[in-house]
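Before relying on records like the one below, remember that each one covers exactly one chain. Contacts with other chains, cofactors or solvent are not represented anywhere in the record.
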Amino acid sequence: MKVTTAVRATSADLEQFEGLLFRTTVLLMPYVEEDFDDVRQLLRIKVWRAYESYDSSRSKMTVKAFVFGCLYNYAKDIRKRRHRGDLFIEDLAPAAADASRPRGASATDRFYAQYLAVSQELAFFDVEDEAPTLPNTLTETERQVIGFLLLDYTATEITRTLGVGPKRLRAIRDRIEEKMEDWRPNTEDSQIAVAA
């Protein structure tokens, strides 16, 4: 078995790629929003990593061809990112101008109001709902389990919160189903509200 050691790149080793770095940076500038020097530094890091990861025993290419290939693929990835049509919510903000919004509000405010705001009616819909009524025959633990289920807790979260095992929780749920199978709320009887 052949043991290879990692090659440490020196600044003299990387200087031979400065022309390639400069030309690649110039070609990438229309595709990125970063500063020229920042893009060049990112590419320089890519060259450095490629140079150090080159292993002559695994590749028939020269080190220069390997580094060029890595840099070319990285540049291709950057160009793809732009053409993929990635849109960010902040980019859409100026396009959200709506005639129904007040004229004095900025485009960003109109955008937030249209796409990110929630009406007061929707925000308080769940809060103003009455608590469901349950039969008097349910124990405190059974009522807590129902409360957690109404709050969309998973079985794992319920067992962790109540300090019971999964088998015990299944038994509790079975008893709840059995007790509520034929039960219908009756306004004349006294029911107990869910206490979560």
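Residues 146 and 194 are 7 Å apart (CA to CA).
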